[in-house]
Write a structure and sequence with these properties.
It contains eleven helices and twelve strands. The protein is α/β, with parallel strands linked by helices and about 300 residues long. The chain has a domain at about 10-180: TIM Barrel, CATH 3.20.20. Strands 3-4-5-8-9-10-11-12 form an eight-stranded parallel barrel. Strands 1-2 form a two-stranded antiparallel ribbon. Bound molecules: NADP nicotinamide-adenine-dinucleotide phosphate. NADP nicotinamide-adenine-dinucleotide phosphate binds near residues 181, 214 and 267.
Length: about 300
């Protein structure tokens, strides 16, 4: 599996396993989570994506229970987590509204909580989960730098940021922002043309792509024009539509890092098959055209 250098310190696997849905299944036992992680590791997928808010602020603890049982896994993996969203449930059930908090006090407290939940003393990459319209970039930038200096966090980045949000925060930091985790898939592909991806390419930053299979939307209508097109290419490659959709992202020159979220162990075991598929320029545009429902101008 290819590795991507996000910073001098932090390298991630080209495919990442996302743990948003890790608590949505019956079996959340440490043994089963370990089985999923080991299935990833066997394919070279060593990077796991978390957030404080996942599973109503409970998903990090599911990973932590696994790491407590199998502590040797910690040094074999990179853990990404996020902070900044306060939603009125779980630990924040007493709040009146959903809001963002990128204050130094909250970010520090959130990281400490995440470390405790995941039973680790550092995270490899901390992301600010959403751009905060109330952000004091000087305060947020300073606390992110301080967290890197403290060793609790090895690198920092953002998620769902527009280029202007990125530039504002970066202007107040000495560490380089390592990535922007954005929604990106065959179906949600606006960032390819609205400047978001171009901005990251100009900065030499690899984007992480969340919901790279549209959160499962791709499989809901087996006879949609897009599903049929992906199936046609899958058949030519003796593959699956999921693999073709991921290969379409991998083919892009910006070095997109897809963050996959299947909870199905047999699917997890095959995630890396997408690496086997070559998507040439004409095929790439064939898929893009069908996904957008119109020819490029
Ligand atoms: N930064 C952000 O704001 C943000 C937002 C959302 C997500 N994320 C990250 O991105 C990760 C991935 O998101 P996601 O889970 O939406 O990604 P996804 O991989 O696009 O979708 C996963 C969903 O698709 C289904 N699926 C996958 N392969 C399938 C197949 N062959 N047939 C039928 N269903 C299939 C899965 O069901 P099964 O489990 O049954 O396979 C699951 O429900 C998350 O875990 C999280 O780490 C980040």
């Amino acid at each position: 599996m290819e590795r991507v250098e996000l910073t001098d310190e932090v390298h991630v696997s080209r495919l990442v396993y996302g743990m948003w849905r890790i608590g949505d299944v019956e079996d959340t036992s440490p043994r089963h989570v370990q089985e999923k992680m080991e299935a990833c590791l066997e394919q070279g997928i060593s990077t796991f994506d978390q957030a404080d808010i996942y599973g109503e602020y409970g998903a990090e603890a599911i990973l932590g229970a696994c790491l407590a049982q199998a502590p040797h896994l910690r040094e074999r993996v990179e853990i990404v987590t996020k902070c900044g969203i306060i939603a009125p449930f779980g630990v924040y059930a007493d709040r009146r509204v959903k809001y963002y908090d990128t204050s130094a006090e909250h970010i520090k407290a959130s990281v400490d909580r995440s470390l405790g939940e995941m039973k680790t003393d550092y995270v490899d990459l901390l992301l600010i989960h959403r751009p905060d319209p109330f952000m004091d970039h000087l305060e947020t930038g300073a606390v992110l730098d301080a967290l890197v200096a403290s060793g609790k966090v090895r690198a920092v980045g953002v998620s769902n940021f527009k280029p202007h949000d990125w530039s504002l925060l970066q202007s107040a930091m000495s560490n380089k922002l390592a990535t922007n985790q954005i929604e990106l898939s065959v179906m949600s592909n606006e960032s390819l043309v609205n400047g978001e991806l171009a901005f990251l390419q100009e900065k030499g930053v690899s984007p992480m792509a969340w919901s790279p299979l549209g959160g499962g939307e791709l499989f809901q209508e087996a006879r949609s024009p897009l599903a049929l097109k992906l199936q046609e290419i899958a058949t030519q490659n003796e593959s699956t539509i999921a693999d073709v959709a991921i290969a379409w992202l991998l083919a892009h020159p910006s070095k997109i890092i897809p963050v996959l979220g299947t909870n199905n162990l047999s699917r997890i075991k095959q995630i890396s098959n997408a690496n086997e598929i070559e998507i040439d320029r004409e095929t790439w545009f064939d898929i893009y055209t069908v996904a957008n429902g119109c020819e490029v101008p």
